[in-house]
Amino acid sequence: MAIVGAGAAGLATAIFARRFNRARTVVLLDGANAPGAKILVSGGSRCNVTNAAVGERDFNGAAPHLVRRVLRAFGVAETVAFFREIGVPLHEEEHGKLFPDANRSRVVLEALLAEAARCGLQLRAGQRVERVALADGGFLVRTSAGECRARRVVLATGGLSLPKTGSDGAGLRFAAELGHALEPDYPALVPQPA
Q1: How far out from the chain centre does Cα 134 lie?
Q2: pTM
Q3: pLDDT surpassing 50 at residue 40
């Protein structure tokens, strides 16, 4: 399995993929030499990990029943327990925001990277993915450092949210090239346009 993007979503996906199947090889590819830049700037560099209440209406683009299914499988309580397990206890602040007790986003990133290493993930930092293509019943992933083959690929590139951290839309392009339909993009953390 290849995961494109070693931010919060990519690291979490890789960790849980290995926990679910220890025999599975998981390669985590990131263009940055030091992954997790967006984690470091989130929540004013304190990292708002999640919120005390999260529901399907908090998400846009997917069918509410699909979001509800995901949230039932791994909700707020499971998220809080996971972070506590990897050494990042959380506390609640105004408006139900959950932050690390240390009030530093770096502890979140370091804990995720440490857990990824403990799980035996192959982190290939500094290898920007240039193309993802179907090949021989799987995928061929071309990077700035060469190619790798994978039976499964997860795109966790962060959309267009913050280009200087690597979220520059490349993952959207890969998804479109693979035949996926894309929802129109718009800024998050602001109301959706009418």
Answers
A1: 22
A2: 0.90
A3: yes
